[in-house]
UniProtKB/TrEMBL annotation:
<dbReference type="InterPro" id="IPR003313">
    <property type="entry name" value="AraC-bd"/>
</dbReference>
<keyword id="KW-0010">Activator</keyword>
<dbReference type="InterPro" id="IPR011051">
    <property type="entry name" value="RmlC_Cupin_sf"/>
</dbReference>
<keyword id="KW-0805">Transcription regulation</keyword>
<keyword id="KW-0804">Transcription</keyword>
<dbReference type="InterPro" id="IPR020449">
    <property type="entry name" value="Tscrpt_reg_AraC-type_HTH"/>
</dbReference>
<dbReference type="InterPro" id="IPR047264">
    <property type="entry name" value="Cupin_HpaA-like_N"/>
</dbReference>
<dbReference type="InterPro" id="IPR009057">
    <property type="entry name" value="Homeodomain-like_sf"/>
</dbReference>
<feature type="domain" description="HTH araC/xylS-type">
    <location>
        <begin position="198"/>
        <end position="296"/>
    </location>
</feature>
<dbReference type="Pfam" id="PF12833">
    <property type="entry name" value="HTH_18"/>
</dbReference>
<dbReference type="InterPro" id="IPR014710">
    <property type="entry name" value="RmlC-like_jellyroll"/>
</dbReference>
<keyword id="KW-0238">DNA-binding</keyword>
<protein>
    <submittedName>
        <fullName>Helix-turn-helix domain-containing protein</fullName>
    </submittedName>
</protein>
<dbReference type="InterPro" id="IPR018060">
    <property type="entry name" value="HTH_AraC"/>
</dbReference>
<feature type="compositionally biased region" description="Basic and acidic residues">
    <location>
        <begin position="292"/>
        <end position="301"/>
    </location>
</feature>
<dbReference type="Pfam" id="PF02311">
    <property type="entry name" value="AraC_binding"/>
</dbReference>
<feature type="region of interest" description="Disordered">
    <location>
        <begin position="292"/>
        <end position="312"/>
    </location>
</feature>
Length: 312
């Protein structure tokens, strides 16, 4: 039986990496040159099971590969790359701009709060920018997100989320412009396997605190646990259980970083019957106890955005 080309495309957590999400935040922000220069300005085709990219290119050129097609684009522009879209980049060495990566929980919250405007995050598109007020506002928002991400202060989590909401609204306005002004929708492949994976991730988002068994999730999706595992490994590069554990771990990191809850309280809110079970779970996936992780976060001036994550 022939193998679908999609199964040969690597799954990255961040573009260019196969690592755990490296921060307790629900977004990751860095300048485009920071990482692309390390790869000779070329990021090969790949996909993400649960991440959305927003690229703000202020100047320079980019060849965007998306689902088998390539388009040569020039800044200033904004590019939206939804989850599960196969994409790659070739940047010119004079590229200037930022890439903001949103984790699925944040995308889900944006969808709840912004409704139709958040739908812009599910449509792959390149939006050219002109010289008007919207361009200046968008550039200011990206600069504020970058500054807050690199220099955290009190209320950081709330401010970052507010800024991302504003950025999403601005991008939605770009998408709503008259097509003659240059907004360019790009193709997006859809298939039942991807829909099943997205439905599974949505179930995780709604139920991870109760830690249902994979069999329960599979039953809700109308399939066997073996089929669900096969689908997750093929499209997300991880087992169904790993995807559930990653979501639990992300929430644990967030609560340890941004709340004053005790370790026992964190364990209880995440469905662990005993704090000791939670501690073993956390240490197995991170190499640190929850207490040590909290101390490290509180003594680190900025998030570990440039540090290597735990290898899979």
């Amino acid at each position: 039986m022939a193998t679908s080309p999609a199964t040969d495309v690597p799954v990255f957590k961040l573009y260019g990496e196969t690592q755990h999400w490296p921060t307790p935040d629900l977004l990751h922000c860095e300048s485009i040159p920071e990482r692309s220069r390390l790869h000779d300005w070329r990021i090969p085709p790949h996909r993400h099971a649960d991440l959305v990219h927003l690229l703000h290119v202020s100047t320079g050129d980019v060849a965007l590969e998306l689902e088998g097609s390539t388009r040569q684009l020039q800044g200033p522009l904004v590019i939206v790359v939804p989850a599960m879209s196969i994409h790659g980049f070739r940047f010119s060495p004079d590229i200037r701009g930022h890439i903001i990566t949103l984790a699925r929980p944040l995308v889900e919250r944006l969808d709840d709060r912004l409704a139709e405007q958040a739908a812009t995050l599910t449509s792959a598109a390149a939006h050219p920018l002109g010289e008007g007020r919207e361009t200046a506002r968008l550039a200011t928002l990206v600069a504020q997100i970058d500054d807050e991400y690199r220099h955290p202060a009190t209320g950081r989590d709330h401010l970052l989320e507010a800024l991302i909401q504003a950025l999403t609204v601005e991008i939605a306005r770009l998408a709503d412009r008259d097509p003659q002004l240059g907004s360019r929708p790009l193709p997006r492949r859809r298939d039942r396997a991807r829909e099943h994976l997205q439905n599974y991730l949505a179930l995780i988002e709604g139920q991870f605190r109760q830690q249902p068994g994979i069999e329960q999730f599979a039953s809700q999706l109308g399939m066997t646990s073996a089929h669900l595992n096969m689908l997750c490994r093929r499209l997300a590069g991880r087992s169904a259980l790993q995807l559930l554990h990653e979501r639990i771990l992300l929430e644990a990191k967030r609560q340890l970083t941004y709340t004053n809850m005790t370790i026992s309280q964190v364990a209880d809110t995440l469905g662990f019957s005993e704090p000791a079970y939670f501690t073993r779970f956390f240490k197995r996936l991170t190499g640190h106890s929850p207490r040590d992780f909290r101390l490290r976060q509180h003594t680190t001036e900025a998030p570990e955005s440039d540090a290597p994550g735990q290898a899979r």
